[in-house]
Structure formats: C-alpha cells, structure tokens
Amino acid sequence: MTLRDDRRPAATDPKGGGLDAADVDSAGFDSAEFDTYESELVQTGFRAFATRVNRYLARPRWWLEVLILGALYAVYSLVRNSVGDVADQAYRNANDILRFEDAWHMALERPLNELVHTTGWLANIVALQYATLHFWVTPAVLIWLMFRRKQHYRKVSGVLIVTTGLALIGFYSMPTAPPRLLADEGFVDVMAQTASWGWWPASGAPGSDAISNQFAAMPSLHCAWATWCGVVLFCFAKWNWVRILGLLYPLTTYFVVMGSGNHFILDVVAGVGLLAIAALIIYAPALLRWWRHRSAATPTRSGVPLG
Questions:
Q1: In this structure, what DSSP letter does residue 198 have?
Q2: What is the pLDDT of residue 216?
C-alpha cells in the first residue's frame, strides 16, 4: 500500500501526545493505514540510527579500538579458560587425532618435535619465537593497519575478530590436549625443556596454569593469527622485504607450534580454515556486489545456437 501525501496536519495531537482511536477517525485515517504509517516511521528512524552508528564505527579511533579489542579479549579469555574439567575428553580427542594422522601418514609433528628437542640451539629459537612473536606481532600489525591503512582496517580486523569467535566454538565443542602432554607417544615438551631461560613455567604453557587453558589445541588460533598477520603484510605493505617477512612469519609459526609439541598438524589446518571462513563471512557482501556488477556488465551474446 502506498501512503497518501495529502494527509491532513490535523492528525497531529496539538498537545504533543500520541493519537488515540478517536483522533485517527476524526482525522480521516484508516486504522490499519495509520498502523502501517507508524511502523514505517519506526523503521525509518531505526535505519537512520543504524546508519549513523555504522558510519561512526567505520572510521577507526585508537581509543575506541583499544576498548573494543580489550573487551573482546577479556570475553575470549573468560570463555576460553572456563570450559570446566574436560581433561578426559581432551586426551581422548588428542589420541583420536593422532591415530587418524598416523593412519594417513601425516603426523608431521612427530619428526619435527624429535628434531627440535634433540637440537639445543634450535629448541631455544623455537621457544623464543613461540613465547614472544605471537604476543607482539599481532598487536603491532593491528596498530600499523589502523594508522597507515585506515581504509582497510575495519574489515580486515573484523576477520581477526570473527576467527577468534569461531575458535571459541572449537575449544568448547572439541577440547583437545596438545601433543606435548602425550608423553606415552614419544613427544617432548620443548617449552618445559627450555624453561630455564625464564620464559615458561614447568607445564610448558604460555603463562601460568591459572590463566591458560591447556586443552585449547584445536583449532590452532596461534596459527590463525599468524596467517592473518602474514596475509595483511603481504597485501598492504609497501616494501618488498616486509611482504617477504609477512609470508615467512606464518610458515615459521607452523614449524614452531608443531616442533615445540604444542599442536598437531590438523590443529594448524583447522586454524587456517577458520581464518578462511571468517574472511568469507566478512567479505561476502562485497564479493556478492562485485559478482552482480560483473554479471550486469557482461554483454549478452546473441546468435544462432550451435548444434
């Protein structure tokens, strides 16, 4: 139904209040028509409000980003570390993953862990990379992106946020012990081995046992974040040497998480897969618009059918 433009101003309550049924009838409005009119006003006001909020958030502001990311990390840590007593299930899942990998001859973490823990200097480098870069590189890339590539920040950072949210589903639905806790399978906890350097507690966890969930191996968020950093640097950095480092960072991270005994190769694959799904979610509207524009721009071919 199309609303008439010749509605009379007398329909407005002069005292500023709402209209009752008698006012509607005296103003010449149909009751159903008036309900539709009110509904359209509400929807228009909501759309205008949503547009203003969207425009405001589209421009990154450092203080707002700190608040948003801080709140998200707090929620992430709370959820990640409050899964309850799932040790038995976590060990069962870890053994199931390892049996699957062994059956398909893809347990790459076995030879990598053997290489790292038997090579002292390599074990120290692996421990240093695992204990530091994960906590430095991701915030650094976010800050660089916000100040130097503002036009890309909102969507690109959105991929990281959605990836983290999806990973929480994995931690809850499939608690998984890391290979380093499967001592009967021959794995060695490299982080505990290098704990004399002062980076790690004896448990081999990235922090105290009180704040770290030991059974959040599947998927590897460590590798997902590293891959995000590498793709961002490769796509948006100006200097070639930075782009090359961007590509090397996730590759070395894959080696480190498996060599240190912190992740199975399937954890790595799952983490990278979640990142791809998150990117598809964030960029799906833009891809759909591109596809529609491409289809509209493609000329329709005419002619005599073949055959």
A1: S
A2: 87
Distance, in Å, from the CA atom of 287 to the CA atom of 293, rounded to the nearest integer, reads 10
Q: Are 229 and 246 in contact (CB under 8 A)?
A: yes
> Residue 144: phi, psi to the nearest 5?
-60, -40
| DSSP sequence for 206-221 | SS-TTT--TTB-SS-H
The encoded tokens of residue 23 equal 């006012």
Helix (H, G, I), strand (E, B) or coil at 306: coil
pLDDT band, residue 213 (cuts 50/70/90): confident
- Give the whole-angstrom CA distance, residue 307 versus residue 304: 9
Contact 268, 254 (CB under 8 A): yes
Higher pLDDT, 179 or 150: 179
Residues in the chain: 307
Q: Return d(Cα 23, Cα 29) in angstroms, integer.
A: 9
Contact 131, 140 (CB under 8 A): no
Rounded to 5°, angle at Cα 294 from 291 and 299: 140
> With contact defined as beta carbons under 8 Å apart, do 254 and 223 qualify?
yes
Taking the C-alpha atoms of residue 174 and residue 221, their distance in angstroms, rounded to an integer, is 14
Who has greater pLDDT, 248 or 24?
A: 248
Amino acid identity at 167: A
Task: Give the residue ranges of DSSP H helices in 81-119.
Answer: 87-103, 109-117
Q: What pLDDT sits at residue 295?
A: 77
Residues 55-112 have pLDDT tens digits of 555 566 666 677 777 777 777 667 666 656 788 999 999 999 999 999 999 999 999 9
| pTM, full prediction | 0.74
H helices within 104-214, ranges in order? 109-117, 120-148, 150-173, 190-193
